[in-house]
Every structure is written in C-alpha cells, then in structure tokens.
C-alpha cells in the first residue's frame, strides 16, 4: 500500500524526451493518469533527428495533433530532397526527389481509398516536435508534469513502485507511489542501470566516412542559401569528394543547419575551428559560420538491451535500443514502443489485463529493436564505404565520367530515406497475445505489403470519399479492441460481444460494408488491438470467443 505522505498514481514515467512525452499522451488517451519526470526544466533546444515516420505520424493523428506537427519544421514549399554535390558550391551529382509538406498534403487528398499511408513521413527537426509535445502535455488532464525533477531512488514490491524525486533547482523532495514505472531516460538510463540490465550488440562502426565518433553541430550560415544552395534547395545536402564526406540538414529552411562531420581525434572534444574548416572543404570556399552548439554521437551503433524491464518497472526508447541516426529510426522506434506498452499498462491499471500481457511487451518489441538497429547500421555502412573517383572534381571528360558514375551510385541510396517497410512492416509473429492466422509476407525494409495475417499493422482503408480527419479507418477504431465486420454480408458477432463483456475487455464493433475493404483484408472479421495491430481474423466468429479474449488480454497463452 502507498505511504500516507506519498503521491499515488498509476504510472510514473522517468524521462521527458519524445518517447516519455508520447507515452504520457497515449496513457492520457486511454484515460490513465501518469506523472512525467525530467531532469531538465524544458526540452533541449538542439537539432537532432528530422524524421517523423509514417507510423509515428499515424500516432500523432490518433492523438489529434498530426496537423499541428505538419506545420513544424521546413516551410510548406521547401523540398525534402536529398542532394549530393562534389562540394556545395560546385557540381550536383544526384538528387533523390521527395515532396514538400504542401505537396504531401495534396497527395493525401488525391490518394486511392486503399492507399496504405494516410500520414506520410514528415521532416521537422525533433527539437521543434519535442517542444510542441511538451506544451501539449501540459494541457492534458491526466498528466502531472515534473520537469526539473530528478528521480533519485525507486524500489518495487508486489504492490507497486516507490520513488523519491528531487527538484534540481531547490533540493525539494517528493515521495511517489506508482503501480508501474517506465524508464524513458535515454541511452544512459538510470532506470535501466538500477535494474542491472545491460546493452548488447555493436557499439560502433569504424569506416573512413560516417564511422566511429561523429559530431552534429548546430550552425547558422546565411551565405549557404544566399550564395550556394538557394536555387538547389533540399532537406539534406551531402558533400562527396576525395577530401571529405559530410552531410548538412536544413533545420528551418533558412540560415540554420545541422552539420554532421567525423571527429578528427576520437578522444577530443569538438572544436569550432575544425568544424569551420570542414565546412570550408564542403563548400569549396570559406564562409561565415556561427557555431551554436555541438552534439557527439557514434556512427554504426546498434545496441539492444538484454531485457525490457523487470516486473513493474519497464523501459522504452533509447533506454533499450541505441541507433546510429542513419535512416531516422531511433525516435520512431521508441515511440512505437510506447504505443505497444501504453494500452497494456492501461489494461493492467483498469483491471482487464492478465499476467502475461505486460510480459508480451518485451516479446513483441525486442525483435523489432534488433531488426531496426541492424537496418540503420547497414544503411550507415552503405553510404560510408562508397568510393568515388579522384577525378570527380576535374573539368575534363574523365571528371564528367566520374561524376556520372558517382551520381548513378548515389541514386541507389533512396531506401535510406524511404524505408517504408521499416516504418510500417514491423510484426509480432509468435506473440502469446496474438492468435495464429496464416503466413505473413516476407519482411522487407523498403517495401510494405498490407496483410490481415494477425501480428501486423491493420491494413489501412479510407471510408467514403473524404481524405480528412474522420475519413480514415484508423479514425474510427476505438480506444480498446475493435471488431471489424467487413463487406456487404458479414456474420453476426453477438457471441464475440458477450465474451468481451464477460472479461471486461473494451470492445467496439465497426461495420465497413465496402467490398474493396473486404478484399483488402481477405476475411469477413478482423479483431484490431488498441495499437492498431491485427489480433485475430476469420470468416466466422471464433469457435471459442471466451478463450480468444483470454489470450489477447494476456490471461493465457
């Protein structure tokens, strides 16, 4: 039982980055109260990842904030291309064309009703998204915000977890008692260390370019757009020549960029002069450069924790998987962790989840962490180990030939920036809370094949002629489980409804009479989990609906 002087709450979240913020919002959406601790007073104002994947954008849509997120980042007409140059002031070698934010919205408005990407990828720097999420969290009724507080101690027993938190600025202390605690506190997670859980995997990748210790430097460089890139705008720029290889990411579409370079000396701190020199070599001439801040990172990192928690204390995000930034999978995989975890925590707090439900979190998410970290590492190796002819900058037939060859090679890297299979194709096959139901498509990192085989993301469908909020199948799914009745003549499901009610499992029934939707799913009935994954499918109600709901709610294998 909680101590009388303790603050009692269902879930305590340690770490207020995007993963912790989204877990709090998912729990709020489920009607579950949480407290969110973060050592810093606010989110950090330094550029990080700039990719909100399609799956993450679907999560934002469910919370009603996708439209606001799409207003963040680059101007609506700014291309999100990836462009490769010998130097930023010289030859363009290749360009991977991708739509601006405005073009993306137009494509959504014109897409087919069975289109699988209702919320395409968006490019807004993580610092903008984090700041928005924090302000949104502050206005949610079920979230207690404790930014500027450090969790000093936690201790769990069969009844819950006791925490002591300290306000960093004043030393004030508070005792809390939570039913569950989730550590979303990053790669150096204190919660993970308290549990004695270690990382395993590849700590880095040593190669000539984009390998080992790297620096991401936040810079202001007005001359870049004005004199060199204004007519060749992109979201990400690469300098590729025999002397240097580095990338530059547009932060605001104007003067601000994130400049990524390899450290000259692995054990030395970043040096402003070295960064300015690297920029000179990327541009081909010296330019005025205002260095705002540096952030070190390691290319080729692919680390996954040995466990995702212990009893009432769970872990998510960088606390359980560390990525190289290549591909933009890190934050997105972490947010997907919380989507999987939040509804299971809600089930336990609300009393309808069984003892196996929380254990399925690690069973389902650890293979995805291994899959995604390895995908990011492979992409890092691809771009870091490519060679270019030393004649590539020459004004000669040999130089022209070298540039054509390099352009052809670089054009093959589009999978790094699309990777829709990584974003939407994660599956939970073999999970104890997923019913058997067929053979899924082969996993492919660059393509996504919709399927209703249980264990994968529910195939998407637009209902009616509209393409706005309320028109997506995902907009119609409930906070609990949803049973889809598909096509013009689906069977009755009264036994299903009774079985769910008997077990207090929240269930809504959604009729989708469209024959195309039925053809897409290939079945008359599909049971969709709160995280929009297919839990069961069939052409007639399950023979043992009580047993099915016992399984999917974690009461039996």
Write up what this structure looks like.
It is built from 17 helices and 22 strands. Among the domains are: 224 residues, 3-Layer(bba) Sandwich (FAD/NAD(P)-binding domain); 126 residues, Glutaredoxin. Strands 1, 2, 5, 6, 7, 8, 16 and 17 form an 8-stranded mixed β-sheet that branches. The chain has a 7-stranded mixed β-sheet with strand order 4-3-11-12-13-10-14. Strands 20-19-21-22 form a 4-stranded mixed β-sheet. Strand 12 and strand 13 form a beta hairpin. The relative contact order is 0.13. The mean pLDDT is 93. The chain has 557 residues and is an alpha/beta fold.
Mean pLDDT: 93
Tell me the CATH superfamily of the domain at 7-74 and 122-202 and 302-376.
FAD/NAD(P)-binding domain
Task: State Rg.
Answer: 25 Å
Indicate the overall shape.
globular
Secondary-structure-based class equals: alpha/beta
Helix content: 25-40%
N-to-C span? 30 Å
At CATH level 2, the architecture of the domain at 7-74 and 122-202 and 302-376 is: 3-Layer(bba) Sandwich
CATH topology of the domain at 7-74 and 122-202 and 302-376: FAD/NAD(P)-binding domain
What is the strand tally?
22
% residues in beta strands: 15-25%
Q: Can you summarize the main beta sheet? A: 8 strands, mixed
Number of helices: 17
Provide the CATH top-level class of the domain at 7-74 and 122-202 and 302-376: Alpha Beta
Residue windows where pLDDT falls under 50 for at least 5 positions: none
Give the key terms.
557 residues, alpha/beta, FAD/NAD(P)-binding domain, Glutaredoxin, 8-stranded mixed beta sheet, 7-stranded mixed beta sheet, 22 strands, 23% strand, globular
């Amino acid at each position: 039982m909680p101590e009388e002087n303790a603050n009692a709450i269902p879930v305590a979240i340690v770490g207020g980055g995007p993963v912790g913020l989204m877990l709090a919002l998912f729990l709020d959406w489920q009607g579950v109260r949480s407290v969110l601790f973060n050592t810093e007073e606010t989110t950090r104002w330094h550029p990080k990842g700039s990719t909100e994947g399609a799956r993450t954008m679907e999560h934002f849509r469910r919370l009603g904030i996708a439209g606001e997120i799409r207003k963040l980042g680059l101007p609506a007409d700014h291309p999100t291309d990836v462009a490769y140059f010998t130097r930023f002031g010289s030859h363009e070698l290749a360009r991977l064309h991708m739509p601006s934010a405005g073009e993306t919205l137009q494509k959504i408005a014109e897409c087919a009703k069975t289109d699988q990407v209702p919320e395409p990828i968006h490019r807004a720097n993580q610092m903008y998204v984090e700041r928005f999420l924090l302000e949104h969290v502050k206005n949610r009724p079920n979230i207690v915000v404790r930014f500027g507080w450090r969790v000093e101690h936690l201790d769990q027993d069969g009844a819950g977890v006791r925490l002591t938190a300290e306000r960093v600025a004043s030393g004030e202390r508070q005792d809390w008692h939570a039913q569950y605690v989730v550590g979303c506190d990053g790669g150096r997670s204190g919660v993970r260390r308290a549990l004695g859980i270690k990382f395993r995997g590849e700590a880095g990748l040593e190669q000539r370019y984009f390998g080992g210790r790297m620096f991401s430097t936040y810079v202001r460089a007005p001359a870049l757009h004005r004199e060199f890139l204004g007519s060749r705008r992109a979201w990400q720029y690469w300098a590729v020549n025999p002397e240097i290889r580095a990338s530059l990411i547009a932060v605001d579409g104007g003067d601000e960029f994130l400049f990524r370079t390899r450290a000259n000396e692995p054990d030395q701190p970043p040096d402003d002069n070295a960064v300015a020199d690297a920029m000179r070599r990327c541009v081909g001439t010296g330019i005025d450069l205002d260095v705002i801040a540096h952030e070190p990172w390691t290319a080729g990192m692919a680390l996954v924790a040995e466990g995702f928690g212990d009893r009432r204390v769970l872990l998510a995000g960088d606390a359980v998987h560390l990525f190289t930034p290549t591909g933009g999978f890190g934050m997105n995989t972490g947010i997907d962790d919380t989507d999987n975890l939040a509804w299971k925590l809600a089930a336990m707090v609300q009393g309808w989840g069984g003892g196996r439900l929380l254990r399925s979190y690690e069973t389902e998410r650890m293979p995805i962490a291994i899959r995604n970290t390895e995908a990011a590492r492979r992409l890092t190796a691809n771009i870091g180990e490519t060679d270019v002819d030393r004649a590539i900058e020459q004004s000669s037939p040999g130089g022209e030939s070298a540039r054509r060859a390099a352009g052809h090679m670089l054009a093959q890297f589009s999978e790094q920036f699309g990777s829709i299979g990584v974003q939407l194709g994660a599956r939970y096959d073999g999970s104890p809370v997923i019913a058997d139901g067929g053979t899924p498509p082969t996993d492919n990192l660059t393509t996504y094949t919709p399927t209703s085989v249980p264990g994968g993301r529910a195939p998407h469908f637009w209902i009616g002629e509209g393409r706005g909020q309320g028109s997506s199948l995902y907009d119609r799914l409930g906070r609990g489980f949803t049973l889809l009745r598909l096509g013009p003549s689906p069977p009755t499901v009264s036994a299903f409804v009774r079985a769910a009610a008997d077990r207090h499992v929240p269930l809504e029934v959604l009729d989708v009479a469209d024959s195309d939707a039925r053809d897409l799913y290939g079945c008359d009935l599909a049971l969709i989990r709160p995280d929009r994954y297919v839990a069961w499918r069939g052409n007639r109600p399950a023979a043992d609906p009580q047993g099915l709901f016992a399984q999917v709610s974690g009461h039996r294998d």
